Amino acid sequence: MLCLHGFPEFWYTWRYQLRYFNKSYRVIAVDMRGYGDSSKPKGYQNYKLDIVVDDIIATIGALGHKSAIIMAHDWGGVVAWRLAVRRPDLVGKLIQINSPHSKVYNELLKNPVQRKRSWYLFMFQCPFLPEIYIKAGDYKWPKNVFRSSETGIKNKENFTEEDMKAWMYTYSRPGSLTPPINYYRAAMRQFRPTPFPNELIQPKTLLIWSEEDAFLVNEAADLTVPLCQEIVLKKLKNASHWAHQDCPELVNQYIEEFLKQS
């Protein structure tokens, strides 16, 4: 089971899943390219989607497996959708947490509500400004992302002060901000965006969706369903964008039920 995190996260975001599924699976949560302890090549060109997908393909092979259960969230979900298209043979099953199909997200950016929620996509295109903004006020913005009433984790006991310290340690190290932001720069600056085929997603898919996601409109979940050959959609009521941290018991239950299906 290979876990792919989003922004602003790192491998630790999967702590609840690592502990729970370790009893039955070889569970591995990686730092994506540019995050945490992974390599950080310079230049946004090194963070194009297919380059990051190549990393995951290589990782599965390096771990000695021919396929993996892919569990993904946020940007990790974007990578996972692309992996499922390019190499469905490598994806035993696909678990997506608050990550709509890439075609759906691209279309929804025409929606003014979704554009407003995705304001940071456009701010991240500026040089230097995003890094300054994130550091301002002793990293006030990333702290609020996880703790504010608008965007933060609803079940506060699941994101402790110790958890926040882990984030601060990771993101306050020199050179830790620009590589993750380069994912957004690479995605928005392609003259010809990578086309997404019309074929349905082949691997069996579970989409877990928090209905109180402050970054994504809820119709994104329902619009994703017809783009998958076989999909289970589970919706959470009292959970934020960070569902796997917010409601880990219920999320893990849904994942376990899905994995037991033939």
Give a brief description:
It contains twelve helices and six strands. By secondary structure, it is α/β, with parallel strands linked by helices.
Q: Explain this structure to me?
A:
This protein is of the alpha/beta class and 262 residues long. It has a single domain, classed as Rossmann fold. It has twelve helices and six strands. Strand 3, helix 3 and strand 4 form a beta-alpha-beta unit. GO terms for molecular function: epoxide hydrolase activity.
How many E strands?
Answer: 6
The helix/strand class is alpha/beta
β-strand amount: 5-15%
Overall pLDDT score: 95
Organism: Acrobeloides nanus
Pfam family, one: Abhydrolase_1
GO molecular function: epoxide hydrolase activity
Family: Belongs to the AB hydrolase superfamily. Epoxide hydrolase family.
Overview features:
262 residues, Rossmann fold, 6 strands
Topology, pairings included?
Layout lengths: L1 E3 L10 H7 L6 E2 L19 H14 L5 E6 L1 H12 L4 E7 L4 H7 L3 H6 L1 H5 L5 H19 L13 H11 L6 H11 L16 E6 L8 H6 L6 E6 L6 H4 L1 H13 L2
Parallel strand pairs: 1-2, 1-3, 3-4, 4-5, 5-6
Helix pairs in contact: 1-12, 2-3
